[in-house]
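The pair is set out directly below:
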Amino acid sequence: MTTGSEQAAAPVPRTALWRGGGVLFLLVCLASLAVGIWPGLVYPTRLAFPAAPLPALRTLAAGLVLHALLIYPLVLMRRLARSRPAGAPENPPSQTPDGATTNVPDGATTNAPDGVATSVHGGFVAATACELLAFAIAGGPFFLVAAYLGDAVVSDVLRVLLCLSGVYAAGWAIASRLARSPGGRSVSVLAGALLALGLPAAYYLALEFAPAGAAHRVLYDLAPVTFLWSQAASRLAFWPQPLWPVAVYVALAAAAVLVGWAMNRRA
C-alpha cells in the first residue's frame, strides 16, 4: 500500500495528457469541421452561402480560436487551481521535520489530477508546450480534410497555423501566467471573452450603427475570430495580410506574462 507522498512522487503517464484537454480539443475540431461540412445547419437562412468550396477550413480556424481563448484557458486554470491554491506564492515554503522551512525548487512538479504535470516554472511551460505540439499533430487530419473540402493549398494551411500560434500564445499567457496572480482568474476569463467574443461583437455593432470607415476594418482584423476567418480563405498569399494582428496577439501574450509576474512579485 502506497502512502500519499509516494503517490505524489509517482510519475505521470504520458497518455494521461488526453484525459482532459486533449479530448476537448478533438471535440472542438470535430464540431468545427462538421459546421464547415454542413454550413446550412447554422448559416442564417436569409443569407445565401456558396455551395462550393465549403468553408471547412474557415470554420475549423474559427473554432480553434474559441478553443484557444475560452476553453483551453479554463483547462489550464483548473490545473493550476488543483496544483496550488489561488494567490499562493510561486515558490511556497515547505516545513521540514525539525521545523525549518525550505523553498520548493524551481521546476518542481506536482501531480495534477488530470494527468499533466504542472510545475512552478519551467516544468509547466514544458508540459503545456508538449501538449500544444500534441494538439498540432492530432489536428493534422482535421486540417487535411478541411483543406480538401475548402479547395485550400498547403500555403493556406500554414498561414492559418501561423495565425493560430499567435492566438494560442495569447490564450496560454493569459491563463497560465496572469491567472497565477491574486484575483487573476476572473481577469483572465474576462480577457479571453473580450478577445473571442467582445471584439467580434464590437465589429458588428460598428458595422450596424457607425458610419463606414477604417475603424470597421481595424476591428475586423483585430478580432481573432474574424481575422482567422478571412485568413482561412483559399488560394491566398502565404503571409497573412495584414500581418500586424499576429504581432498584436504575440504582444498581448508578452504583456500578460509581464503583468502576471509583476502582480506575483507584489503579492
